[in-house]
Amino acid sequence: xxxxxxxxxxxxxxxxxxxxxxxxxxxxxxxxxxxxxxxxxxxxxxxxxxxxxxxxxxxxxxxxxxxxxxxxxxxxxxxxxxxxxxxxxxxxxxxxxxxxxxxxx
Length: 105
Description:
Layout: E1 12-13, H1 14-20, E2 25-35, E3 38-48, H2 51-64, E4 70-74, H3 94-103
Antiparallel strand pairs: 1-3, 2-3, 2-4
């Protein structure tokens, strides 16, 4: 039984947070790291369908809480089933880019 003045733990594992929402962006205050840059636990600060609204909330959070770490995740499928993503890297040298820019191409 919890004592009257004990705070309830409102933090969750990142995988739990991902399952709490359906196709939403989630802003999390990181409370525990697994390793450098690897959040493992946090407190949900906001969730919304709009990525831009979460981005604004993230800026406000950091302005009010300098030094605290946040993590933003999307709770749905990032790449829908049946879609194949092909990544290609094309390397240009600086002279080629300048020449193309001047020619308008």
